[in-house]
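Justification of computing resources. Each target in the renewal requires a structure prediction run like the one illustrated here; the chain below, 484 residues long, is used simply to show the kind of job we budget for.
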Amino acid sequence: MYAAVDLGSNSFRLHIGEPIAGQMHIVRTARDPIRLAAGLGPDGALTPDAMDTAVRSLRDLGAILRQHRLDAVRVVATNTMRVATNAEQLLPRLEAAIGHPVEIISGEEEGRLIYMGVACALAKPGEQRLVIDVGGGSTEVIAGRGDEIALVESFSTGTHPQSAMYFPGGRVDAAAFDAAVNAARALFEDAAAQYRAHGWQAAYGSSGTIRAINEVITRNRLGDGTMSIASLQALRDRLIAAGHVDAFDLPGIKRERVIVMAGGLSVLLGAMLEFGVRAITAINAGLRLGVLSDLELRARRSDRRDSAIQACMRRFGVDEGRALRTAAIAGRLYDRLAGSDEGLRRHLLWSCMLHEVGQAVSHTGAHKHAAYIVEHADLPGFTNREQRLMRTIVLAQKGNLRKVREELGAPDLARAVLAMRLAAVFMHARVDGDLDGLKLRMKQRIEIDTPRGWLRQHPTVAAWFDKEVAAWGEVGVGFQVTQV
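Resulting structure tokens:
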């Protein structure tokens, strides 16, 4: 079984799923409507009360997780944690509360996971579709065919900013609603032509807010009773007639959710008008199901991070042969160094595949350009934390080690850096076929034993070893080469 925890701007949610006969069956769900986005102060920081509430919520969700035997757990945080200026201070508290790492994912990664969830639920491999997800702090729009994503973009508007800006105090009138819709359209207009050109056979709305809008429309037979533009406008008219969210009395939504629905409705109308969507189908699938599907794919060794690495290599014209040779050498060296972190080993190999991407910018300081690209490139499936880890390994591939001195305090990461540096040397010197007699140790110091005469056969390696002695010495690590 797998668990997905979604730290959204409106609610924290949990899904526990079990794959059976090719389908993900949800066996447990939980939701805590903590309204995290409302806790953002004028300075962009979450208030102490908001942070305390988030920690308490994750403590409760962690208790639910511990009731199940789980193969993997993934906790993802979305827009509010992306924009909060003090998110890094809150992260350790959240991780301690739930007992698992918390990943702040990009808007594009959020969109990709949403689409994965929708594609998993629909199981229509040939369908060309558009997916719109109106969240608490952002809106994701994704176009694709079957499981394949063609376009994904995250827009900086959602239910909370729209409600706070255009419906302050819960007041709703025609002028404010028109202004809210037009503001949303303005954000979408630059991307609209590209999405229209791609086209779709069906459009889906995947967020809880869109499902709430659908519930009100269908239960009260507003407009034509479907999620059409006419029905959405009929719901808008009922909100305007009420004049205040507290006066809205149609069944199908709790009173405290009406303000969220009003903001979400303005965004959804703006998106549908701008993208040319006549009607949309609400679907009970999205981010959490996408996370569960991604965890299952990783368990089946079908990791989309591998394809992200390949795509990045193609984009920057990386020589695949050199990259594969470097990765193969680094993997062998890491194993000889008794590296115990299998996850870090995978990130080392991915780093090797991308270690030369910086040459597309300039040969001078290519490792620095590569580190920047690895950290900031759009790599589907990777978290910011993973990309920062790979950036460290790539940056440390050559030159001085002072720039990563603090990171070298982690023993396995220090082994990965050593494996990366030596792999690059051996790849350039073309000695990867002559490493069987080489022995490596890294404890208090680095010790390399070479067969007698080996360095005479590979004189450039001897020159590189001299540089390594100096580089490691600068960070307080001895480096000794002995011929045996």
